[in-house]
Design goal:
The chain is mainly alpha-helical and about 160 residues long. The protein has one domain. The protein is built from 8 helices and 2 strands. The protein has a two-stranded antiparallel ribbon with strand order 1-2. Helix 3 crosses helix 5, helix 4 (about 70-80) packs across helix 5 (about 80-95) and helix 6 (about 120-130) crosses helix 8 (about 150-160). It is globular, with a radius of gyration of 18 Å.
Length: about 160
């Protein structure tokens, strides 16, 4: 790799950031939506949605309402039955009728981790956050608004399954 030309590189990153913000605003996209559009491969879910709802309900609600995916598309991407997705969405609306607010998040969960059906949704999320993001169980418990003992138990169960 070539040595960095500090001033020029800073200018490049500033221009990129400005373009990123301009496109987000012009097309009314959240950061994960824009990243998806750029990469055209991975759907990301912000960690802040995992409160008040079960993990599957939160993910389905976010994908349906914030990313405008159909029940069929969500079922396909999560490797789940359409009836399961519809039920999760219906249940999520009873518990939390309003749409998730667009938040900039420090942590995102790729939905591809949920296609492996050996693990439950919370198990997959906990395993991902602990192993890939290097978060402690107490940090994960705060982010997911769950008891730390629950997170430890879920992670232990996930490790045994894999």
């Amino acid at each position: 790799m070539k040595p960095l030309e500090f001033n020029r590189d800073i200018e490049d990153f500033t221009q990129l950031k400005n373009l990123f913000l301009k496109v987000k605003k012009k097309y009314n996209l959240s950061t994960p939506e824009l990243i998806i559009k750029i990469e055209e491969k991975e759907l990301l879910v912000p960690i802040e949605i995992f409160h008040k709802l079960s993990s599957l309900e939160a993910i389905v609600k976010y994908l349906k309402e914030n990313l405008n995916l159909s029940v069929k598309e969500i079922a396909s991407k999560l490797n789940r039955n359409e009836k399961t997705i519809y039920q999760a969405y219906s249940s999520s609306n009873k518990k939390l009728p309003e749409k998730f607010k667009e938040l900039e998040s420090k942590f995102y969960v790729p939905i591809s981790i949920l296609t492996e059906r050996k693990l439950g949704v919370l198990e997959a999320i906990t395993k991902f956050l602990h192993e890939s993001s290097k978060l402690t169980f107490s940090e994960i418990s705060r982010l997911l608004q769950r008891d730390p003992r629950t997170i430890w138990t879920v992670y232990s169960r996930a490790r045994r399954k894999i």
